[in-house]
Amino acid sequence: MFTEKDLQQIQNKGMTLEQVNAQVSRIKNGMSYSNLAAAATIGKGIESFSEHEKKDFIGLYESKRSALSSLKFVPASGAATRMFKFLFQFLKNFDPSKESIEDYAKKHHDIAIKTFVSNLEKFPFYNQVVSKAKQEKSNFDNLSPDEKYLQFVKTMLNENSLNYGFLPKGLLPFHQYEDKAITAFQEHLFESTLYASSNNKANLHFTVSEKHHAYFMDELNRFKEDLEQQTNTTFNVSFSYQKEATETVALTAKGAIFRNGDDSVLFRPAGHGALLENLNDLNSDIIFIKNVDNIVVSDKNIEVSEYKKLLAGVLIKVQEQVFAFLRKLDAPVVLEEALLDIALFLSNKMHVTINADFEDFTLEEKKVYLKEKLNRPIRVCGMVKNEGEPGGGPFWVKDESGEISLQIVEFAQINIQDKAQQDIVKNATHFNPTDLVCGVKNYKGEKFNLKEFVDPEAAFITLKTQNGIDIKALELPGLWNGSMAYWNSIFVEVPLSTFNPVKTVNDLLKAAHQV
Q: Which of 125, 257, 437, 495 is the most buried (most CB within 10 A)?
């Protein structure tokens, strides 16, 4: 299947032939769907805390904060192209000499374009785009309203102008304050001072694409000094790329290796699951994970950030108990009663299903079993009430051995054609906003090798096109899905106000993004 030239290409990427053959087999064998046993709900997999309990957890985190190394991990590599999908279509299809925007919107059933042009001045990039448009079009002020709108969008998106579609979301103007527009990237640094900093220092790590790295550095250099003075915080910002060794092959519709025009093997980025490698390289006591587009304006961020402290407090409390139990299991002699306490803790607090034959194990077997279940990375995940969005969220999942565990499951992992699985999804009450606080060190202070806790069967197979040809592509198990399948998980209800992603440019008009 592979030539000597192919083998050299594979080696140059830091991969092995065995890995690539395994990828080919996985695509050919098809995707394994998750076997949902039930939806996780309040009291059955999702914790819900009273105001008093929330204050206690936040207080616990605040009391430990200065002694802990914390880091904020932000996936930020994706380009913003999809944010502007309806605007690219508008550029392609709208001709102001032939129709009005009103007629265009009706003809194409495009409500989004009407919303966009009706609220133009509310967008954080308005001033920048108008200024650039006037430079490029000297008669801009004399154009008709529809011609102005068209020129505005051209200025935003054209490659030889502002080229917003090329930029990553993190570098787009996200919020407009009195005197300036702020990028999502800068907002994340400000947000880190509210919960992910200690002793006036904040550590942040952004995963970016190599082509955007220099742009991030330029932006950081532009505002860092002022922000440090404003917040009395020193920012330690690091960057990484998805590693070439995490890329995956693709197959044609007939099952052959897809090749580029020069006959080399096509390797593609393997989705956000590839970022497990980047996360695995980091070494902090607590790691906060949040997507780059889920960021709010500063006055609303103070309330939102309290819930990150809540999740961190929950993590610290459970981690302290886990570590105490693990040290007890290291003792030469452990009483049967203590082993029962640990088993009950795993079952009741960590939502771990204890083996039905546990009672029949010898004392030593029980110790080994409990230690293996306890000594794992821990993640505390915020979960938001589902307001009618089916699919991705917290579920109880049964594996091939019959063991049931708490998992975050993407819609693509669910066989929605199966009536029983469909009914479970309909009964789901919460969804996953990608709001995680992670403990990646063991009770001895050693960092876990996170690659040991992945479920490789949770990979995604997607249908894509490459140069107009249909291909089957492979994505690694998602970062907070299969890549964390064997972590210990605690799900905590957080309010919808903590979830404010910008999927389309019009989302910037929502209250969370308006000062």
A: 437
